[in-house]
Amino acid sequence: MKRRHFLQFAGSTLAAMGMSQTDFLRQADGYGRAIAQPTSRKLALLVGVNDYPSPISDLRGCLTDVDLQYELLTTKFGFAPSDVLKISDSEAIKPTRENLLDAYNEHLVEQAKPGDVVVFHYSGHGVPVQDPDPIYENSSENGAIILNDPLERSDGSTKLPVVMGRTLFLLTRSLQTNNVTTILDSCHSGGGTRGSGLVRAVPRDLLRVGSAGYESISAEFELQRQLLAEQGLSPEDFLAERKAGISKGLSIGSAQFSELALDAPFDGFRAGAFSYLLTRYLWQLPGSTRAESIRVNITRSTKAAAAAKHHSQVPLFQAAPGSDSLEQPIYFTAPASGPAEAVVTNVSGDQVEYWLGGLSSQSLSLADNALRFTVLDAVREPVAEIEQVSRNGLRAIGKKLSGEGEIASGMVLRETLVGLASNPQLKVGIDPSLGEDMEAAIASLSEALVSETSGRSQLLVAAVDGETAFDYLFGRMTEEYQEQLTADGYTDLPPVNTLSLFSPSLNPTPDSYGRVGETVPSAVNRLKPQLKLLLVNKVLKGLSQTSSSLDISGEIFTVGGGPSLPLSDGSSTRSLDAEVEPFEAGSKLRIRVKNGSASESLYLSCLVIDPTGRMTVVYPYEWDAPEDASLIPPNTEEVIPRPEEGKAFEVGGAGFLEVMTITSTGSLRNALRGLQEISRSADGYVPVGGDDSVGFLGALLSDFDDISRSATFGVTDVDSDRKVVDGGAIAISSTVIEVA
Prior knowledge:
single chain; 6-stranded mixed β-sheet; 15 helices; globular
């Protein structure tokens, strides 16, 4: 039972959402010298704030973030539920400033002993405040997190309910243990909304200290003076320590100081984009993994995913100066269980309730209530198989299908089968920038792509509502959007009054805009081929996030020497010690794929997808050869394109390309026949676009279904109208390469 490696780009939450992720308080990042030693106790304080007093805008995903961390820590990392304290709008302890400070002292500072593990997670708004002792020459501001205190005071003035990064630094410094992990899912810049997502940042001009009648945060400075006195630390030494780095342990954030953090809609729930991505990744850890390896993997994959959607985002991990925190396991403790997509929370007869914290967002949407899981006991032995029948957010109910073992709460689930929707759809939101043309846009797009088999639209089109997880937005470039995107560092923007596809956070999609003043029907007609490609890409990316037990590994490498990038090995998280260099434009690349099975041969295919969605089939490329020409025998490897034939795949200009490999126990007969037809007009590698892409996808899914139903696992009792993908017979992975 193995899992696609998180490093693989396709279907990653961020790429699918097209968003920048979390920025976190750069002064309060982490803390301390990490000492690898046995831990006697694991303590966590999880804080989430959705509800804020006016004029601060509410958020919607922070309570989910708290649940994500809670289920991860108690199931995956062995934290006792009684040692995990939650503070949020829905808990008995509300997220006020006083409650947070009391909880930090009573639950963490007073209880943590040397060698214990401490986790502090905050999800909510961030705000920049003036720092009397700035540590950066180009900024006099310090980050602060905002709690849910009433703003109006009896004297008519208003005080900010914040905890500054300076305060968090001192609070963490007061802990007796060095094994501290701080995660902050908030940001400081921007504000309001971006497309269909909320930004976890209060605008600078709204709550800046000293403006709009707000008093200075004197309570914060008084608390800092008390903490300095208690710790015997002079203001000068305090400033020197802050300039040197963080105070204890490890701090994790997903983006740089100026990048936006999104509170984003997913399929049936909202969450912090980074919190969901990080916790989902940690569910997939097979064993104890160095924080540095996790940092490299997350940095590379999220940077590539965001850049492929025209964002700037570089996650940030920081360790205390001179410490070995990055050499320690994440959270300073080894996982208590192996990889999993879900955990059982309750059992009643044959009905099983479970939490889907480790399942990709794409599998959630593709499954259409037809996922199957294998239940594993404490020693990872299969106990039973269950089929999902309903889901509410990340909580689901399944029914037991087979197995003699008894299912109990706390057992983990592995995804074994994905049942695909009979009519996959691309979700397109209609942006308010269209004004009076919104209704016309909904009507035109709804008729744009209609399945030849079902007669139903393959686009789900609706006005942006802030709750639906759209794949793309259709809108008009406005002066306001241009100013906003220019301020965010984007260049080569579409002209004002052009119609375009945008990411959900309102960044234009390449090659999707037309002439100034174009009508909506004309634009939709022009975009049909690209919409078809994007639909196909969505389905393939979603499939690449499903589990597989096939033992596949490999790498993308440069002919003649140069950078290389590992593919998924399908069974473990790789330990990587360095950032991967971009490939140079004009480089000739090959892909090495190894079949680790001791007894089973596997068929191999490979696609390359560019940022606009265009696909090129790079293997197989000999259409007159027998099917078995693409077989990889057991315990052998295949290099494609084959060196002895003098072939290589040459990459063009700067940007990002997605390399998708498909390995299966059976041949992709239908897809290959379709490609033979397409290839008659192609020179060399076969390009797949427009109508060809939809036909290719249909043939590919038919092959997946045939292979899955004929596999040893016997998938015979699934609705024949639904295509299925069995992880025991098919492995699909996708990796983004950067070309500079």
